[in-house]
Amino acid sequence: MSETPPETPDFDAMTRDIAEVPAVEVIVTVAVNLMSAAAVKLGLTEEGDAHKDLDEARKLVHALAGLLDASATEISSFHAAPLRDGLKSLQLAFREASLIPDEPGQGPGEKYTGAIYG
Questions:
Q1: Amino acid 5: pLDDT
Q2: Using an 8 Å Cβ cutoff, are 104 and 89 in contact?
Q3: What are the phi and psi torsion angles at 4 (to 5°)?
Q4: Rounded-to-integer distance, Cα 69 and Cα 111, Å
Q5: Counting Cβ atoms within 10 Å, is residue 88 exposed (0-12), middle (13-18) or buried (19+)?
Q6: How much is the average pLDDT of 16-40?
Q7: Residue 59 phi/psi, 5° resolution?
């Protein structure tokens, strides 16, 4: 039996593809991926608690808040508003899921967003 070597990625094609993507689209895509991953780690998916990990969720929510804070002037409010709404929902879900909630202003991402209240 001869094994065929795995195909190597075509880095030139990948570079050309990414070169054609506007920066706003890359930022929004990364933000949506962070939101989705945070929702999973918060147990907000159909599987519920199967993948719940609040330590991991904290990191993802914090990274999302940092990305949105850093890119606020670079993306239009058309893109930023729903992302900020999603971030706030995740921050509230984190607070609700925590056995001992963080003090206001100390939750994930609140360094960037300010204190989140329900």
A1: 60
A2: no
A3: -85, 135
A4: 10
A5: middle
A6: 93
A7: -60, -45
